[in-house]
Design a protein that fits this description.
It is a multi-pass membrane protein. Keywords: Lipid metabolism, Membrane, Oxidoreductase, Transmembrane, Transmembrane helix. It holds the Pfam family FA_hydroxylase. The structure is a single chain. Helices cover about 55% and strands about 0% of the residues. The chain has about 260 residues and is mostly helical. It has one domain. α3 crosses α7 and α4 packs antiparallel against α10.
């Protein structure tokens, strides 16, 4: 029964996201924004499908690793609303540093490269995620589990963090006034995806922008971003996009930014 409920919720969320993608395509077409390109979008959808499959295959690894770490927790915090709120904020803090180091450490950039490889910014780009990234997640949140935050809440918070970021990958939403610099917004995330000199390695926050403000990586959108990595177009082949970062890493050729 629980699995059926989870599948129903997942199906409802997927339907909502699909409707938003369709609405964005209509918006782009009617306003001649050209934020979608057929081959790029098909690559995004193929990568999304592979990512969903990888989550299924790697779920056991993630669950086993996090539950094992929970045995060594310093505290045993019970699941309640306050602990969930703490978990959500703590996960966002950890995500900031994980995301920031993913742009600085070449091994982590090998995983993250695919997300920055598109020359476009639209909602389908949000799930341009590496199929092997689930291998890293338990270790990213390990400190929180070892402190005593329930690994179930940590996992849910991480998932919600990624879901929130879906809405950031769009040009259909302009600046959001006083929210800019407090929450991650489409404008702030367009900056993050820009390969403009002033935009590189900026705005790493998943939900909150306060971490970027605190640690000196916040950059407001001041000019139209040029998307993609600094060396330009890679490929529309999903396999090439997924594995290029690893190939370049082992060849010592990662002399580019995104």
């Amino acid at each position: 029964m629980e699995n059926e409920t989870r599948m129903e919720h997942g199906g409802a969320i997927f339907l909502i996201l699909l409707i938003l993608v369709i609405l964005e395509i209509i918006w782009s077409w009617k306003n001649d924004k050209k934020v979608y390109e057929t081959k790029d979008t098909l690559a995004n959808l193929a990568i999304f499908a592979g990512f969903q499959m990888s989550k299924v295959f790697l779920f056991g690894f993630q669950y086993a690793t996090m539950s094992y770490l929970a045995q060594f927790a310093l505290l045993q915090l019970k699941i309640n609303a306050w602990v969930f709120l703490i978990s959500f904020i703590a996960v966002d803090f950890m995500y900031y540093w994980y995301h920031r180091y993913s742009h600085k450490i070449k091994f982590l950039w090998a995983f993250h490269l695919v997300h920055h490889s598109s020359l476009f910014m639209n909602l389908t780009v949000s799930y341009r995620l590496n199929w092997l990234s689930a291998l890293l997640t338990p270790f990213v949140v390990a400190p929180l589990i070892l402190i005593g935050l329930p690994f179930e809440l940590v996992a849910v918070s991480f998932g919600l963090n990624l879901l929130y970021q879906f809405f950031l990958h769009t040009e259909a939403v302009g600046k959001l006034g006083f929210i800019e610099g407090i929450l991650a917004t489409p404008s702030a995330h367009r900056v993050h995806h820009g390969s403009n000199e002033d935009y590189i390695d900026k705005n790493f926050g998943g939900v909150l922008m306060i971490w970027d403000r605190m640690f000196g990586t916040y950059q407001p959108e001041t000019e139209k971003p040029t998307y993609g990595i600094t060396t330009g177009f890679i490929s529309n082949n999903p396999l090439v996009l997924i594995f290029k970062g690893f190939y370049d890493y082992f060849k010592g050729k990662m002399d580019y930014k995104g």
